[in-house]
Write a structure and sequence with these properties.
207 residues, alpha+beta, eight-stranded mixed β-sheet
């Protein structure tokens, strides 16, 4: 009898090994000491306007077992803010990279989330004011931009819309609740400081 669970577990192990290899090539930290020491990883695919077409991987140890959870997110801003950027320089798109200790548990408006309090991030600025995204290396700036990790603001939303002006946004509020419960557990063990790593999907699968 075909064992779907066995296949899924093997795929997850293969994914974890690919991520570890990519991290090693890039000189990124991978946290594997102790239970619930979270690796929070955004996996960016091709931009599909207003769709939650990316993933967030959460990798951690639990009783000597390595766990991988996968959630649909967007790492791109919605069409609304691409066309009407908050900043005169253009809409922010987080640059791929590892942001060590940048995130803490805090408030995104009224919602408890991971917020950019602990350090700077790098963003592209897209000022074309249309639904397409241009990642122009010359537009990259570094600073504090409120690039937070949070859920959609309305559980009935089916598109990104106004929910992201550059943040990393969960499609499902229920997924985000699971995510935050693990974040809080990790915080109780290691402190309120989290690293977020954004990688490219195509680059990952070429490893």
């Amino acid at each position: 009898m075909f064992n779907y669970l066995l296949v899924i577990n093997r795929m997850k192990k293969e994914t974890i090994e690919k991520i570890k290899k990519l991290f090693k090539e890039k000189g990124y930290a991978f946290f594997d000491k102790g239970d619930y020491n979270l690796n929070i990883i955004g996996v960016r695919g091709e931009h599909k306007p207003d769709e939650f077409s990316d993933e967030l991987y959460l990798i951690f140890n639990n009783k000597r077992e390595q766990i991988l959870l996968e959630f649909p997110i967007t790492t791109y801003p919605g069409i609304y803010w691409l066309k009407k950027p908050m900043n005169i320089g253009g809409c922010a798109i987080l640059k791929e990279g590892q942001y060590r200790g940048v995130y803490q548990i805090g408030k995104h408006y009224s919602i408890e989330a991971l917020v950019q309090f602990g350090g700077k991030v790098k963003v592209y600025r897209d000022n074309t004011e249309d639904e397409n995204i241009i990642l122009d290396e010359s537009s990259i700036i570094e600073g504090y931009f409120g690039i937070n990790i949070h859920p959609v603001m309305d559980k009935n939303n089916v598109t990104v819309g106004q929910d992201s002006a550059g943040c990393q946004v969960f499609k499902h509020i229920e997924d985000f609740s699971i995510f935050m419960s693990l974040v809080k557990r990790a915080s109780s063990l290691y402190g309120n400081s989290f690293t977020y790593t954004l990688i490219n999907k195509e680059e990952l699968w070429k490893v």
